[in-house]
């Protein structure tokens, strides 16, 4: 069912932008539910909440992390494995019988046709289905009671593992099932999605577009059918050519009752094709609709059984369309009837090329940007607050016009999607929005003055608390800037910005402009008072590194004494052993976590140079760099970072007051220089991207 269909206790409709994201953990399940499940299965309850058994007495996997609700624990409900369910019929349980199709989806007691609609769409796209439902799973070879599925979450695919215990009553499945009594892929997929969302109870209401995003990684927008373009067939063809998945519904009547022509109110349908059909009286344009229930079809013009219009269409033409006259949930209708029969349309734009070889689909190019709104750093709020310029900025280059535009000629179409991450998990309720501005002719980063003097060229209608806001549009070729924002300043949150464009159009985080400071052009001269001379440092090395090697603890003691006697006195209180471990690893080429004298001298030269840079940019001589001083200081050290990296610096490397201490600055430079060098070592041909193995990735990230 559509989420907006579920009424609260007072009969009101919940806000349509509510979200049901949650984390599945011991905390959600609770010891009582785990013990209940264990007792019910006679497996032996976990000894305590910190010790969770995953194997029952029969040696099969038991998922104690699955969140149980009152509906699942009511009297008469038994949790059974498919082998138990099939035992009375003598059938052998199968994961998939004769291929996975939309007919394998039959709704149970849950009001989750919104989910069934998404699952039905997966069946129409085999590549998508294999992404979500890994092949090779069965109840025979290698069976251990567990199954895995994949769902897209905030920019990556995550694996969800479940056991195959399903709730039954009188040996019949309570929830989603297949007409084939021994087929269980769809039932297990529903359970896996329930685990992702916090239990079966979380599926009792929802929007089709939420499930489509989680099962495709796509970008979904909700459109009013009445506001769709006049040339609707052209618009729909363009969406389908991009591989979009389209759902539609009529919400203007009582729950699941029918219109006079057979369309169910508040029920999710799928639009799967637009075709020009040749008839004896000329060509007409029809759309193909699918009811995921597999029955209850359109009864108006062009219907399967009551549509005499098909008598004017040749057998060959009907065969080309793949038309089958039976009650299977699939039907055709005229475009004008589509406009009158449906109220909303949900479009899922795919972000990955999942088309079959030889397909005519021309999918979007997708760019992902992860970012953060950091209070007092990159969380300027909406334009009305006066701090809007502090928000993250992304350069948006539209240089190649559409090949087959739906808008005006010489324009570049695109779809932007701004998703706030982990909204429900962190109990965050941010109102978010997007603005697009014309880029400055000289400086791609827009200043406070730039934003005050120029209005946005395109923006979301209003900021909203939905998990994701979508902005679809078209602009003339040129350079633009995208600014994601929260409605109020200094609100902390993480976001994912996804940009869909034609090939050749790009987005990149905007580089922060460096201040026109004369200190940047001055040669940085070693500060003789900051650190001891080379002679004194050699004495310190011999004092603390008696075996001729400098280990992290030796460096900690050495650097503490070196700082105490100079202009940086007091900074040693912010020095941590972790800083010294990282500094040693930076210069360690043998993987031994220790430096000989020659390696130590090379490290000390870096420390002296970085110390001098720190003192030059520590304008108020507080022994701390203010946040706005960090980017110019990094630039002086030969490292230029963009806005997104600076957001991470603000989150990870600053003190509570958003300053960076002297040891923290050394640590930051070490991390940046190390990771840049490691990347360049793998990017031997200068392509700007690298491919590394799983083991290389762990080695690179664990020892740096």
Describe what this molecule looks like in 3D.
- With 704 residues, the chain is α+β, with helices and mostly antiparallel strands.
- The protein contains 18 helices and 22 strands.
- The strands form six sheets. Strands 6-11-7-8-9-10 form a six-stranded antiparallel beta sheet. The protein has a five-stranded antiparallel beta sheet with strand order 16-15-18-13-20, with no helix packed on it.
- A hairpin with a 2-residue loop joins strand 8 (269-279) and strand 9.
- Helix 3 crosses helix 4 (126-132) and helix 11 crosses helix 12.
- It is globular and about 100 Å long.
Element layout with pairings:
Layout: H1 26-41, E1 78-80, H2 82-87, H3 113-124, H4 126-132, E2 146-153, E3 156-163, E4 166-169, E5 172-173, H5 185-197, H6 208-216, E6 219-224, H7 232-241, E7 245-249, E8 269-279, E9 282-290, H8 315-321, E10 330-334, H9 335-341, E11 344-349, E12 365-373, E13 394-398, E14 412-420, E15 432-438, H10 448-453, E16 458-459, E17 468-475, E18 478-486, E19 493-501, E20 506-509, H11 534-544, H12 552-564, H13 577-587, H14 597-617, E21 624-626, H15 627-636, H16 643-652, E22 659-661, H17 662-682, H18 694-702
Antiparallel strand pairs: 1-4, 2-3, 4-5, 6-11, 7-8, 7-11, 8-9, 9-10, 12-19, 13-18, 13-20, 14-17, 14-19, 15-16, 15-18, 21-22
Helix pairs in contact: 3-4, 3-6, 11-12, 12-13, 13-14, 13-17, 14-15, 14-17
